[in-house]
Amino acid sequence: MTDTFALKPADAPTREVREPRIRLSGVADDREMMRAAAELTRDLQKPKQWLYWTDCLVSAAIGYAALVGAVLAPNVGWALLAGVVSILALYRATLFIHEITHVKHSLLPGFRTGWNVLVGMPMMLPSFMYEGIHAIHHSRTRYGTAEDPEYLPLAHMKPSTLPIFLLVSVLMPVGLLIRFGILTPLSLIFPKLRRVVVAKYSGLQINPGYERKAPTGEFRRQWAFQETICSIWAIGVIALVATGILPLKAFAIYMGVISGVAVINQVRTLVAHLWENEGEPLTVTAQFLDSVNVPPPSFLPYLWAPVGLRYHALHHLLPSLPYHSLTQAHYRLTEALGLESTYHKASYPTLSGLMARLANNTMKPRDGR
Predict the structure, then answer these.
(1) Rounded CA separation 31/342 (Å)
(2) Would 235 be classed as within a structural domain?
(3) Reported confidence tier of residue 366, pLDDT bands at 50, 70, 90
(4) Residue 286 lies in a domain
(5) Is 121 helix (H, G, I), strand (E, B) or coil?
(6) d(Cα 75, Cα 109) in Å, to the nearest integer?
(7) Which positions ≥6 away from 67 have C-beta within 8 Å?
(8) Which domain holds residue 320?
(9) What pLDDT was estimated at residue 340?
(10) Omega into 185 within 30° of 0, i.e. cis?
(11) For 291, phi and psi rounded to 5 degrees?
(12) Do residues 226 and 126 touch, judged by C-beta distance below 8 A?
C-alpha cells in the first residue's frame, strides 16, 4: 500500500450513520474549506511516475500470478485462497483507470498505453470506457443530474434496487465478453448496431438513461486502438474455449476473478456517495457532502477502496490530486480546519455503516412514489 497508515492526534471523529438524509439543495459553497484545500495542497499536485508504474505493475504481477495459482491449485481450498489474492491485486491494478482519467498524460508518459495493454485488455476494461464518462461526473453543473452517467438517486429508490445493482456486477464479465468478442466485430459491419454499441455499451456507467456520443479527434484514435486490442483478446478467449485449448476450469476461474473485481468495485460504488441528490445541480460543497471519506484508523478500506478511493469526498474537492497525495492532504485539512468545519461532515467510519444507511434510506417513505 502507498497511503500512510500512521494516525495523528488531530484526526477528527467520524460521523454516525443514523443521521437523516442531508438536504443538498441550496447548500452554499464553503469558501473557507475550498480555499484551504487549494492552498494547503499546492505542493502535492505532481504525480510520482515511479510510484504509479511500480504500484500498478506489482499489483498486476501478483494478480496474474495468483490467477495462475488458482488454476493450478491442487485443491479447492488453495484455489479459493489464490483466487481471493488475485481478485484483490487485480482490483487494485484495475482502479488505476480512475487515475488515467484525471492525471495529465504528459505527466505520466506511456502509462495509459501500458496500463491498457497490461491490465485493460486482459480485464476487458479499456480506459476509453471511463475516460470522458468520468469527467462528466465531476462537472460542476451535471453532477447528480440526469446527465450524469455515474449517478442515480439510490437513497430514494426501492430497496430491490440494491441487490439488482450488485447482480449486474456479477454478470459483468459475460457482458464484456459479448461486448468485445461479438458486438465489436458485428458493429463494424452494421452501422446501426455500431451507433447503439457506442451510445449504450461503451461506458462504465450506472445511469441507464445516459447515451454516449461518438468520439472525436485524438480520443477517437485511442478508442479505436483500445477497442481493437480488447476485441482481439475477447475473440481469442472465445476461440480458445470453443476449441478446447483453454480448459473450462481455467476459463471459469478467469471469469470468476473478473466478476469478483466487479463486485468489490460495485460495493465500493454504493458507498462512494450518499446518493441523496434527486437531480438538481449542486454546488461544489453540496457535491462534497454527498460524497464519502472513510479515513483511518479503519484498515479494510485499504482493500476495498485502494488507490486513494477511501478519500472519495476529498477527491471530489480536489479531483486533480494524485492518489498518493490524498492521505497527506486529508491530514493537512484535518489539522487546519476546526471540528465544526464542513470538511469533517463527509467522514464516516465503516463500509458496513454506510451500506446500512443506504439500505435504511431506500426503505423510507418516498412521497407517494
Answers:
(1) 10
(2) no
(3) low
(4) yes
(5) coil
(6) 43
(7) 82, 83, 86, 90, 253, 254, 257
(8) 1-12+28-43+273-369
(9) 87
(10) no
(11) -110, 170
(12) yes
pTM recorded for the entire structure: 0.92
Q: How far is CA 61 from the centre of its chain?
A: 21
From first CA to last CA, the distance across the chain in angstroms is 45
- 157-176 pLDDT per residue, tens: 999 999 999 999 999 999 99
pLDDT tens digits along 269-296: 999 999 999 889 999 999 999 999 999 9
Can you say whether residue 205 is alpha, beta or left, with left for phi > 0 and alpha for psi between -120 and 50 degrees? beta
Mind listing the pLDDT tens digit for each residue in 107-149?
999 999 999 999 999 999 999 999 999 999 999 899 999 999 9
Cell of 129: 470506457
Give, in degrees to the nearest 5, the angle at Cα 76 between 65 and 64. 10
**The C-alpha cell of 195 is what?**
451507433
Report if residue 32 sits inside a domain: yes
Asked whether residue 33 is domain-assigned, the answer is: yes
For the chain, what is the domain count? 1
Give the distance, in angstroms, between the CA of residue 303 and the centroid of all CA atoms in the same chain.
13
Distance, in Å, from the CA atom of 310 to the CA atom of 203, rounded to the nearest integer, reads 23
- Residue 15 contacts residue 345 (beta carbons within 8 Å): yes
To 5 degrees, how large is the angle CA 147–CA 107–CA 313?
Answer: 40
In angstroms, the CA 285 to CA 36 distance is 13
Cβ contact 86:67 at 8 Å: yes
Contact criterion met (CB below 8 Å) for 324 and 2: yes
